[in-house]
């Protein structure tokens, strides 16, 4: 595993553990990579509940409750969809925090509006907190996906803030 990803996952785990909180993930273009990075950390069962890999639009709707209208209106790679993915992951788990990712990793599938490398993120937390962001990453499929995993972890760390102690 990449040392940066391992460090981010370990830091995330330490913060969640300190807070007594748990994480769930909802992934599309990363295909469970965030979950793999998290579960590579020994003891992660104390702060990681589950991961949903919802690659198809049907899976996003069926497993996470993403509205088919939202998918049709905005496309699967959109901030409204990832917000619904993250909130759906919270509702379908015992987690207090969720992150969601949907993107165009390439090499095909891009459009002028959403070129290859476009990835949407959402982070949802307690009391209805939800934020989203769209990024554009350069590189091949693996580089885009790796950058998305790193960004998702950094984004959640930002939402959690500094260590409490």
Helix and strand arrangement:
Elements: H1 3-19, E1 23-27, H2 33-39, E2 48-53, H3 57-64, H4 68-74, H5 79-91, E3 97-103, E4 118-124, E5 130-136, H6 141-160
Parallel strand pairs: 1-2, 1-3
Antiparallel strand pairs: 3-4, 4-5
Helix pairs in contact: 1-6
Structure description:
It is a single chain. This protein has 165 residues and is an alpha/beta fold. The protein has one domain: Alpha-Beta Complex (Maf protein), CATH 3.90.950.20. Helices cover 44% and strands 19% of the residues. Strand 1, helix 2 and strand 2 form a beta-alpha-beta unit. The two termini are 29 Å apart.
In short:
It is built from 6 helices and 5 strands, in the order αβαβαααβββα.
* CATH third-tier fold name: Maf protein
Structural class: alpha/beta
**End-to-end Cα distance:** 29 Å
| Strands side by side in the biggest sheet | 2-1-3-4-5
Strand content: 15-25%
Count all strands and give the number.
Answer: 5
Residue runs with pLDDT of under 50 for 5 or more positions: none
Pattern of helices and strands: HEHEHHHEEEH
- Name of the CATH first level: Alpha Beta
C-alpha-based Rg, rounded = 15 Å
CATH architecture label name: Alpha-Beta Complex
């Amino acid at each position: 595993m990449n040392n940066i990803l391992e460090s981010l996952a370990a830091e995330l785990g330490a913060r969640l553990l300190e807070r007594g909180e748990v994480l769930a993930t909802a992934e599309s273009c990363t295909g469970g990579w965030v979950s793999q990075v998290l579960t590579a950390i020994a003891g992660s069962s104390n702060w990681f509940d589950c991961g949903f890999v919802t690659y198809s639009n049907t899976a996003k709707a069926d497993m996470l409750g993403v509205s088919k209208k939202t998918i049709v209106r905005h496309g699967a790679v959109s901030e409204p969809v990832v917000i619904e993915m993250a909130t759906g992951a919270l509702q379908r788990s015992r987690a207090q925090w969720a992150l969601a990712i949907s993107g165009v990793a390439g090499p095909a599938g891009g459009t002028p509006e959403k070129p290859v490398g476009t990835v949407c993120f959402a982070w949802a937390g307690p009391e209805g907190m939800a934020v989203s962001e769209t990024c554009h990453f350069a590189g091949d499929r693996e580089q885009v996906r790796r950058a998305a995993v790193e960004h998702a972890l950094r984004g959640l760390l930002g939402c959690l803030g500094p260590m409490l102690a």
